[in-house]
Amino acid sequence: MTILIVVIAIIALIILISTFKVNAFLSFLIVSILAGLALGVPADQVTKSVEKGLGDTLGSLVIILCTGAMLGKLIAESGAARQLANAMMNVFGVKYIQWAMVVTGFIIGIPLFYGIGFVLMVPLIFSITYQYKLHPIFIGLPMLAALSVTHGFLPPHPSPSALVVQFNANMGLTLIYGIIVAIPTIILAGPIFAKSLKGIQSHPLETFIPVQSTEFKTPSVAVSFATALLPVVLLMLETALPYLITGSSFKNIITLIGQPSIVMIIALIVATISLGLNTGRNMTKIMSIYVDAVKDIGMILLIIAGSGALKQVLTDSGASNAIAASLQHVSLPPLVLGWLIAAIIRACVGSATVAGLTTAGIIAPLMQQTHTDPNLMVLAVGAGSLMFSHVNDSGFWLFKEYFNISVKDTVKSWSVMESLVSVIGILCVLLLNFVIK
């Protein structure tokens, strides 16, 4: 009966979001309360479980997500992202322009949230398309594949960051594993797959060609690279240095500096100087950029909090343990099972974040009982959460409208690319699991 109630709750969540178009945060709250009551949680304890789930989830993520959004917004506003793209073009040239787009998308995708990265990079794709008379999808899809992979696999993006917390994984190690998995996934789902799409007719609107601002100085290429990649470097150093340094005092300092929230604060302080003050922007202007950035991710924060509420209700009611006990008899490996659950929810709901975080509450107890590597589970669930983007996903419509193509061609290009990212991603995770065992 417990499992049936949980299944009904998840189906209700999917129907509320996808059919009735109810906001995901409100859907999580409604379903969490009703599920708690149905699962036998005392009426006076249901709201306490919901509030605890909200607080526990946001408490460890607010700093990371808000500072990450601020950093990404400043990278976009300052022109640093464009500098990175231009540098890649100069290195690779027109002949290997696809690879320039891939590397640019990957580098920019790490600090930028997906929506910001998409809106920022698509005009760049079109400007290159018009300048060199190239096929838009052939050029653009590899870059968007890189953005998608970083969004689903790599901290400090919302879903993988939240999964790291919920699975008690290591942020730095997850990032390293994620990069290892991301590289072959991007290559196969991006440049190689895009070669089969040259027959699709795409006529991007000239409206989307970017207009450069001359009001402020543009940061140099070196400064742009250093600032954008600083969070990644610091997280990797935190993972590697404890093995190289033996002094306890140094280890304590490294541990403090290597905490994801401290990493993002340091990166934001550096960016405020290098991409803000040094480009002619005053502190008032920089702070207004940061305010806008937090507004952009406000709903993402609430959705993540809502998923934490559902997770807490499932935990307090004992449903999570019951599900874990029943799933132990399923012949699928935990990593594959986590991927499959996330993939099904993603296809139904259309949100990678909702799919990943909903799966976390279901799979976490099983993962602990089977001693599955939590860092790899983050990646497995992340891969599943990217499966088959279609008409219920905003990214599907962004791609269709920006590239000005039919729904059929959007499915053939965008939806298939996302599915390839998901399938190749889980295969790479399983291979990595085999290697590190």
UniProtKB/TrEMBL annotation:
UniProt cross-references to PANTHER family, sorted A to Z: GNT FAMILY GLUCONATE TRANSPORTER, HIGH-AFFINITY GLUCONATE TRANSPORTER
Keywords from the named record: Cell membrane, Membrane, Transmembrane, Transmembrane helix, Transport
A single GO molecular function term of this UniProt record: gluconate transmembrane transporter activity
Location of the protein in the cell: Cell membrane
Claim: Transport is one of the keywords in the record: yes
Predominant subcellular localization, coarse grouping: membrane
Segments passing through the bilayer: 6-37, 58-76, 96-122, 134-154, 174-194, 221-245, 257-277, 289-310, 336-364, 376-399, 419-436
GO cellular component: plasma membrane
Keyword ATP-binding: no
Pfam families xrefs: GntP_permease (PF02447)
Annotated membrane topology: Multi-pass membrane protein
Record InterPro entries: Glcn_transporter
Name the record gives this protein: Gluconate transporter
Protein family according to the UniProt entry: Belongs to the GntP permease family.
NCBIfam families listed in its UniProt record: gntP
